[in-house]
Amino acid sequence: MAVRDILRMGDPRLLVPAEPVAAFDTPGLHNLIADMLDTMAAAGGVGLAAPQIGVGLQVVIFGFERSVRYPDAPAVPMTVLINPCIVPLGSDEALAWEGCLSVPGLRGEVPRPERIRYSGYDPLGNRIEREVDGFHARVVQHECDHLNGVLYPMRVRDFSRFGFTDVLFPELA
Ligand code: NI
């Protein structure tokens, strides 16, 4: 399919809540997902949301075996998640570094619920429901934030823990 341009922070389209997908297993949906997979792979990302390529639909993809961007992160199964819903489990909060393909060159430490249940649908309309924690939970929350027009810098509380990747983590540069 095609590698699409990724919108960068400042583009107003990243701030618009996405609409639910109304029909599954359609050529348009499969084309969108193929483009998202190609775009994420080309950028070396671990997740991507449809609004990041300018499509205002509730579609996210995430997953990796090993990530150059997050070398210490455990593998997350490659997943296409449509019309997602997230419920935090418990009140534990975790703090960890995040980056975003729409915020290139920067990292910030972001607080999020440590453990969640998430649900949604695959491209054929089959139900997905999982309980996860750690990096998996973080990636899903980050991607689903994009569907609500939220970028991770909006969640940073301590701006002494926000900066350029090559300064914070020279080994990743
Ligand atoms: Ni992002």
Architecture overview:
The structure is a single chain. The protein has 3 helices and 8 strands, in the order αβββββββαβα. The chain is α+β, with helices and mostly antiparallel strands. The protein has a single domain (12-172), classed as Peptide deformylase (Peptide Deformylase), CATH 3.90.45. The strands form 2 sheets. The chain has a 5-stranded antiparallel sheet with strand order 1-2-3-6-7, with helices on both faces. Strands 4-5-8 form a 3-stranded antiparallel sheet. The longest helix is centred in the N-terminal third of the chain and has 17 residues, at 27-43. It starts with 26 loop residues before the first helix and ends in a 5-residue tail after the last helix. Nickel (II) ion (NI) is lined by residues 100-102, 142, 146.
Key traits:
alpha+beta, binds nickel (II) ion, single chain, 3 helices, 173 residues, Peptide Deformylase
Give the arrangement of secondary structure elements.
Blueprint: H1 27-43, E1 47-49, E2 59-64, E3 76-88, E4 93-98, E5 106-113, E6 115-121, E7 127-133, H2 134-147, E8 162-164, H3 165-168
The protein binds nickel (II) ion.
Shape: globular
Number of strands: 8
- Helix percent reads 10-25%
> Can you give the mean pLDDT?
97
Which radius of gyration do the C-alpha atoms yield? 15 Å
What order do the SSEs take from the amino end to the carboxyl end, as H and E?
A: HEEEEEEEHEH
Structural class: alpha+beta
Q: What separation lies between the terminal Cα atoms?
A: 29 Å
Number of domains: 1
Report strand %: 25-35%
